[in-house]
Write a structure and sequence with these properties.
- There is one protein chain.
- With about 200 residues, the protein is an alpha+beta fold.
- It has one domain (about 10-195): Aminohydrolase, N-terminal nucleophile (Ntn) domain (Glutamine Phosphoribosylpyrophosphate, subunit 1, domain 1, 4-Layer Sandwich).
- Helices cover about 35% and strands about 35% of the residues.
- The protein contains four helices and twelve strands; from the N terminus they run ββββββααββββααββ.
- The protein has helices at about 55-75, 80-95, 135-145, 155-170, and strands at about 10-15, 15-25, 25-30, 30-35, 40-45, 45-55, 105-110, 115-120, 125-130, 130-135, 180-185, 190-195.
- Strands 10-1-2-11-12 form a five-stranded antiparallel sheet, covered by helices on one side. It has a five-stranded antiparallel sheet with strand order 5-6-7-8-9, covered by helices on one side.
């Protein structure tokens, strides 16, 4: 799409959890509008999201998902599984298909087990072990496919995510200015930020 802004987001499953990350640049039609955009979101204690696309659309969609999940967890008193959060997001995307949210989203987390899902603007839902989204997908995916392996530890997974986004930033002018990262495991969610 001509008006689709650039971005790169990456997520992987490691042996004890999930790493979700996105670079910080907001570029639109060749202009860098800001270098501090946050494209990762905590949805619940055990679930988060990383996005690429229009920032306003991703913020609005995640705000709606987060509100619904918080009300559900308050009512039921139990954490919502990652798949249920991803399915809810898929339904919201699909019901707006005539005027779609211009965003790609990955939902990941640890509720009993580590899981990660990829969603497109029309709500397609795909489970995977590693995902790259946005305009830097091809380069980031090349790094992920060559270096990802099952049973990785947390530090190794974090390094792989940063390396894949750095590779994408080197080839995609619409991506850059560092990485925001969520690490989600059985102990909860931790947030990290890297500049480069």
């Amino acid at each position: 799409m001509e008006f689709m802004p650039g971005a790169t987001a990456v997520g992987i499953v490691y042996n004890d959890g999930v790493v979700l990350a996105a670079e910080k640049r907001l570029a639109y039609r060749g202009f860098i509008t800001t270098k501090k955009t946050k494209k990762i979101f905590k949805i619940s204690k055990g679930v988060g999201a990383a996005c690429a696309g229009l920032v306003a659309d991703m913020q609005e969609l995640i705000r709606e998902v987060t509100s619904i999940i918080r009300l559900k967890e308050l009512r039921e008193g139990t954490p919502t599984p990652v798949h249920s959060v991803a399915k809810l997001t898929s339904i919201l995307l699909f019901q707006n298909r005539l005027y779609p949210y211009i965003t790609q989203i990955m939902i990941g987390g640890y509720v009993g087990k580590p899981e990660i899902y990829s969603l497109d603007p029309l709500g397609s839902l795909i489970k995977d072990t590693y995902i790259a989204l946005g305009s830097g997908t091809e380069v980031a995916m090349g790094v992920l496919e060559s270096q990802y392996r099952e049973g990785m530890g947390e530090e190794e997974a974090k390094k792989l995510v940063v390396d894949s986004i750095k590779a994408a930033v080197g080839r995609d002018a619409a991506s850059g200015d560092g990485v925001d990262m969520l690490v989600i495991d059985r102990d909860g969610t931790r947030e990290y930020s890297y500049s480069f």
